[in-house]
Design a protein that fits this description.
homodimer, 283 residues, alpha/beta, Rossmann fold, 6-phosphogluconate dehydrogenase C-terminal fold, 2 domains, six-stranded parallel sheet, three-stranded mixed sheet, elongated
């Protein structure tokens, strides 16, 4: 690779830049975005070599990585489309995939053969290039969700890119990805937001926070995530998320019912079953 | 203190024993319980000096610490009551306090003046004396909830005991303790159990666990806690927990409603508000 472009140089884009530069995977890394101050910060931490706010400058890039909130993809693809060659590989780091395919279809008519939707399963609750880390993807999974139209060699290049960052690349069907992520990531975020809000609205919120310990800190951690990113995820993966929250609401109601009815045996059985399932995975 | 007795030498009781012996706070530590094998393990890790399964052996102890699941207190107090002197201080590590006062009232008619209900805000999702740690309470809060009848000097002795473990002792009213803990600890546990169960019942649970990363691990961590302990907490703090789950259910419904209606501005506002509240406490 000679020249790649990272669109949106925050935690995800910045960490990719740092990792690829560390691995010497490409010649130059261009950062594209709107906020000059943040782009300058990305240069100063070494995540990108140069930056631009002019869509015309993506011309000549071999690979473009979209790392902005997924709600912005359509507008970004629309701005850069006339500067792309048929050879340019596009990939992304968005947390929802059906919506990314829809955005590409809406701009290009059909998703370009060299557009490889992807999703690194890594992150922090801290956003911004200041928290970017060359090792963020090391030993983490990256899910690629190529569609029927996708070029196999474009998939190979994107796979190589992630392997250069130390990641483990796997492939899922678009719909499967969105359902799995609704369960592993989107539902836990919704739950944490509801938890923080439920507590924040009590009259004794200060006492609660005074005595909140490790359990509460961990359970609410993801509620410190970037609000724009999570707004977009909730909008873009709406159906799969609502399917999971609906399942979740049923489980919560079942639990409340056992507590209400003081059903000790029922509670024990449910808790022991949960412990077994979770320990088997995270022991 | 010459001789103290720890009833139930698991994670909480065992960690107190290790901490007090390390601090040389008392002469001898007796462990009382039912399971000889576990009591032997407690001796071998140094959490207690001797053990007994005979309630008569608590006679002569200056202080008794109850560290079994709260549902067992009434039966334990009933077994040891005839062996107590009026000077014996009783305290405990239970996660609910109104129920502890009720258990004492039920056994003694009224709560003894030298019974100091307490709750160390520390723990792990791993139970058992094998995970006990002399530093478990260091820099952690311990809440004491004395009632009107409680002797001030008994409170002072229990305060000194916890300070010897490196803990920070605070006092709350019984009802306030139970409401605060319902929010900071019991609700997060209920939420985590519902999360694990919601996921476990999908047809693609294996794929979900394959791709579950740090967010899911942290959000579900407390679902690996001891089922007996949490059964008892749910039964003993029923009302305060149901009050919190009801608040929580409303917040969840509000969020689902915003997602359903694709209300981006509403989602952003809610997420940004949560982030602000949480960062202010844990930032």
């Amino acid at each position: 690779m000679d020249k790649i472009c990272i669109v949106g140089v925050g935690l995800i884009g910045g960490s990719l830049g740092l990792a690829l530069k560390k691995a010497n995977w490409c010649g130059r890394v261009l950062g594209f975005g709107r906020n000059v101050e943040r782009l300058q910060e990305a240069v100063s931490v070494g995540a990108i070599d140069k930056f631009s706010t002019d869509p015309g400058d993506v011309a000549g890039c071999d690979l473009i990585f979209l790392a902005t909130p997924v709600g912005s993809y359509e507008s970004i693809l629309d701005q850069i489309r006339e500067h792309l060659s048929p050879e340019t590989i596009i990939t992304d780091g968005g947390s929802t995939k059906a919506s990314v395919v829809r955005a590409a279809e809406s701009v290009f008519g059909e998703i370009p053969a060299r557009f490889v939707p992807g999703h690194p399963i890594a992150g922090k609750e801290k956003s911004g290039v200041a928290h970017a880390d060359a090792n963020l993807y090391r030993d983490h999974k990256v899910i690629l969700t190529p569609v029927e139209l996708t070029d196999a060699d474009a998939v190979q290049v994107v796979t190589d890119m992630w392997k250069a960052c130390g990641a483990v690349v796997e492939t899922l069907d678009v719909g499967q990805h969105d359902r799995v992520l609704a369960a592993t990531s989107h539902l836990p975020h919704v739950i944490a937001y509801a938890l923080v809000n439920a507590v924040a609205e009590t009259t004794y919120v200060q006492k609660i926070f005074d005595f909140a310990a490790g359990g509460f800190r961990d359970s609410s951690r993801v509620a410190s995530s970037d609000p724009t990113m999570w707004r977009d995820i909730c909008l873009e993966n709406r159906e799969a998320i609502l399917e999971m929250t609906s399942r979740y609401r049923e489980e919560l109601a079942r639990l409340e019912c056992l507590i209400e009815g003081a059903d000790g045996d029922g509670l024990f059985e449910l808790f022991a079953g949960c412990k077994k399932v979770r320990d088997a995975r995270f022991g």
